[in-house]
């Protein structure tokens, strides 16, 4: 009868189907095994229980948890570590029944539970996020024109891209749902002359954004609220609505209600731009996937990623006519590479602020997400729509040229650098 270690190694080799795995494993008793002469990653496994768990379920979840908790040591560049993790994941696919994740959907997304989830992820520390975000404190996908821009430039290009896409005009009323640290509202008020309202459930974001508007002389034009989107009281009031990196927290079962709120607060003919992560395949949103347990436990509690079709369907159900769809998937891969490189550059400061465990969570989560976006495991869509309740055609530009200051085409390519 094979021992556990031999069974594990045989299982991995069979699952690889001849594909290379540039990995050396050092087991708890000092025994070593290299899958390839070209060793790019060394993994230290401290307990037989860890490989027993991988044999029973998702390797990505076990590896992620082991790395965070310190029971698995991993040496190597992040892009090589993630390629090895993908190879192991192919050998140990997730086996949890789909019915289990559906039960979670029905339990999640009350107002109090959403507030707790937002508090866990966003109220880590404003100073922690300052270490690796751009100067405008924008925690969402940047917008690259060449791929060579620094993160400050890419985020300002993204802010301006959203403002131009919404066709913002001086004096218009803009609602930003999930306003973060106020970067978009600050940019829109300063450069486009809007009157703004921003809502967030994060207490630290609320405090920072409110102080920011006062510091930048925008407090008389931009109001920041600590408020659930469901409690926004206005009706037929806002000319434009933006939601950037927020609807991932809404929940599939609540998308109708979410877009219903947007319909209610928008005036007739008003525009909304929803920017958020989407599933790359239609069936991805229904099943349990490798790494989902890790993300739910350590990174985004109760986060749910719908497919684009569901987003468009729910918008249409609330009389929001889609005008434009843009996939920014490569832009998010590049953004995440910038973030994790900047966080690693401030490793000592970050650990002093939030501790070694949370530092490891954020580095592996951002590097893993960069890899996932580049491999088309996840997508990022901006969907522009107009509130079209009547029979007459709502005025809108005839074409998209207004969205762009220059026309250019370049092939997107990731710049992993020394990551």
From TrEMBL:
First-level EC class: transferase
Q: Where is the catalytic site?
A: 369
User: Per its UniProt record, what Gene3D superfamilies does this chain match?
Assistant: Vaccinia Virus protein VP39
Similarity field: Belongs to the CFA/CMAS family.
Alphabetized, the UniProt keywords read: Lipid metabolism, Methyltransferase, S-adenosyl-L-methionine, Transferase
Q: What biological-process GO terms show up in the record?
A: lipid biosynthetic process; methylation
Protein name per its UniProtKB record: Cyclopropane-fatty-acyl-phospholipid synthase
């Amino acid at each position: 009868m094979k021992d556990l270690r031999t069974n594990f190694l045989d299982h991995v080799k069979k699952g690889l189907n001849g594909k290379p795995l540039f990995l050396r494993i050092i087991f708890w008793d000092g025994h070593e095994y290299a899958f390839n002469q070209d060793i790019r990653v060394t993994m230290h496994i401290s307990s037989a229980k860890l490989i027993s768990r991988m044999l029973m379920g998702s390797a990505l979840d076990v590896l992620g948890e082991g790395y965070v908790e310190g029971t698995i040591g991993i040496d190597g560049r992040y892009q090589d570590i993630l390629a090895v993790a993908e190879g192991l994941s192919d050998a140990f696919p997730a086996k949890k029944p789909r019915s289990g994740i559906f039960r979670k959907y029905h339990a999640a997304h009350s107002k109090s539970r959403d507030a707790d989830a937002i508090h866990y992820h966003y109220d880590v520390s404003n100073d922690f996020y300052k270490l690796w975000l751009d100067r405008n404190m924008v925690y969402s996908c940047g917008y690259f024109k060449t791929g060579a821009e620094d993160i400050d430039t890419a985020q300002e290009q993204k802010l301006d891209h959203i403002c131009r896409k919404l066709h913002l005009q001086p004096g218009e009323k803009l609602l930003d749902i999930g306003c973060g640290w106020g970067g978009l509202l600050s940019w829109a008020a300063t450069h486009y002359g809007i009157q703004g309202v921003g809502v967030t459930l994060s207490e630290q974001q609320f405090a920072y954004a409110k102080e920011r508007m006062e510091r930048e002389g925008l407090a008389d034009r931009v109001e920041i609220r600590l408020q659930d989107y469901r409690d926004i009281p206005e009706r037929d009031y806002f000319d434009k609505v933006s939601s950037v990196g927020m609807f991932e927290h809404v929940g599939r079962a609540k998308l109708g209600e979410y877009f219903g709120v947007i319909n209610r607060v928008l005036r007739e003919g008003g525009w909304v731009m929803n920017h958020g992560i989407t599933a790359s395949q239609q069936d991805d949103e229904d099943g349990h996937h490798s790494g989902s347990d890790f993300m739910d436990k350590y990174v985004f509690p109760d986060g749910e990623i719908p497919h684009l079709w569901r987003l468009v369907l729910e918008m249409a159900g609330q009389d929001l006519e889609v005008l434009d769809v843009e996939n920014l998937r490569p832009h998010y891969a590049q953004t995440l590479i910038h973030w994790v490189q900047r966080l690693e550059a401030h490793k000592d400061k970050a650990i002093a602020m939030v501790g070694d465990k949370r530092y490891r969570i954020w580095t592996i989560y951002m590097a893993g997400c960069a890899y996932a976006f580049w491999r088309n495991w996840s997508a990022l869509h901006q969907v522009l729509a107009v509130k079209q309740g009547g029979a007459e055609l709502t005025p809108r530009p005839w074409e998209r040229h207004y969205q762009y200051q220059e026309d250019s085409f370049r092939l997107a390519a990731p710049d992993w650098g020394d990551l």
